[in-house]
Amino acid sequence: MGDRRRALGLDVAIYVVCAVFAVVTALWSEFYGYRIWGNFASVAYILGAAHAIWLLTTTGTGWMRSRWLPVGLVGVVGMVAPLVMLIFRRLTGSDWVITPFQWSSQPEVWVIERSASLLFDTGTPYTDIAALPRPPEVNDYTPYGPAMTVFGMPRALLGGAITDARIMFALTAIATIALSLKLLGWPKPPVRAAHLAVVSPLTALTFAVAGPDLAIIGLIILAGALAARRKAVWCGCLLAIVVSMKLSALPAVVVIAFLVVTTRAGRASLLRFGTAVIGVTALLNIPVLIVHPGAFVEHVIKFPSGTGLITSPAASPLPGHLISSMGQVGHVVALVLLGLTALALTVWLFVDPPTTGSDTMLKAAIGLGAAILMVPASRWGYLVYPLVLWGAAMTFAVAERAASRPAEPHDPTLSQAR
Predict the structure, then answer these.
(1) Domain containing 150: what range?
(2) Per-residue pLDDT reduced to its tens digit, 267-285
(3) Are 70 and 119 within one domain?
């Protein structure tokens, strides 16, 4: 009983903190989409806190007393409802304007949809920044790999509200998580894992106004589940897709690759895994590189690293950005520190490689978290990666405990005697 009360007390604290964040966002954010989300989400979080307080002060049973009820409420009221409203609000025309208070979606949504149109028209999803007849702007850039264009293809081909890239991101995230749970034997995720992966404002806000990071996280988790179930080839294909969507997801890709290498016996299996990774990566990237290698490098490598023709607007007060903002020397120091962080993580993986799915998800969360803190251009919203992967690690651990539990012997004679 004491453990449950402590858990409910933490539930109250989580929902209250989330509610404060949502209210502040609704009142003071410069982005229209953020404010809409804040209005919806503040209601969901306040009701979640009230529900947790009610559970603390009363006793009884029934579905109304489930700690999962406010999680579902946040999903419906704090995620789906604002997403639907913003999708239809976008039909009034608010893309590419310079006033954030009119944006019904964040620029990454339009940029990814544009990249699909460019791919169909020119063979590359990237504009030639140097050839623009005007000074380049931030939204001229597409800081994603070629594979990310798949989410913009429905709108590029069909147009209309129901092809909004956010719907594609959401469907991908939901489908990949469902497939991961199926591979793991349908473990019951801990409520705290749901708080990290779903209830968190980092997830809920991203779901409503943007979404590409959630799709990538879902693919990372699915790749981890495939690795844990020793499906090396499929895992390799998925890792290639992830790194071909967003290069900054590389730390998680490396961690999962270590799991495959440390748990697969035999050179043939490792050869198939390596062939899948290299082959799919080449298939997704080389055609675009051939069309315009300079544009690929400018968009995918130089712009995110802060060495492009213009700098990334990602400027959350995280260590890497703060150091990088101290002039040219600071930028060099930040890049050196990022390299040292990558080296330290690699050494750590060699010394203590992941051996289970939960260990892999936790190490991936740590690796991505460290990279996000140290990269010169970053946003606090990217912390959704380590939070969701931490929740995934908890769920993987539940599946592993269930798998390691010895099965009860079944003796028909004993059953009849009873």
Answers:
(1) 105-404
(2) 888 999 999 999 999 999 9
(3) no
